[in-house]
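Task 17 of the worksheet. Students: predict the tertiary structure of the chain below and write it out as C-alpha cells. Keep your answer in the requested format; marks are given for formatting as well as content.
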Amino acid sequence: MTDLTKLLAKIQRPETSHVDMLRRQSCGTLQWFLEKDIETHPIHNRNHLEFFMCGEDGFRAIEKDLRAATSTIDLVLWGFDPGMELVRVKAGASNNGGLGSAQWPRGTTYGDLLTKKAREGVKVRMLLWYDNVPLNALSGNVPDFPLL
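Model answer:
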C-alpha cells in the first residue's frame, strides 16, 4: 500500500452508489465533505445553494446577502473590481431603442459596500485568485493591484 493510498484511506469517506436495475443507471456525487473528522470539520446544517443563469440576478443576490451579513463576509473571487456596482440603478425610459442611457445613476460600489460592512463590525475576508502579473494587468481583474 503506497503512502498516498494510506493517506486517502485515513481521510476519505467511502460512498455507495446504487444502480437502478431497470434503467441500469446510477447517480453518484463528489464528496462535498472529504474529511472523516467531524470534530475539526463539522457538517453545517441549513446550507442553501442557488444557481443563477443571469448575471444581473446573481449580483443582486450577492448584494442582498452582503447587506444582510452580521458576522462575517468570506469571498473567494477570480477577480475583484472595488469600483463595480453589484446592482445598477435603472434609469428612466430613453429614446435609444430601449438600451438605456450611456450614463446610468450610480449604485453602491462593491468596495464601498464591503467597507461599510467592515465599519459595522462585520469581519470581511477575501481570497483572490492571483496568477501572473501580465495576465492580471491585461484582464483588468485587479485594477488596484500594483505591478511588481
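Marker's comment: The first helix runs from residue 3 to 11. Helices lie at 3-11, 55-68, 110-119, 133-139.
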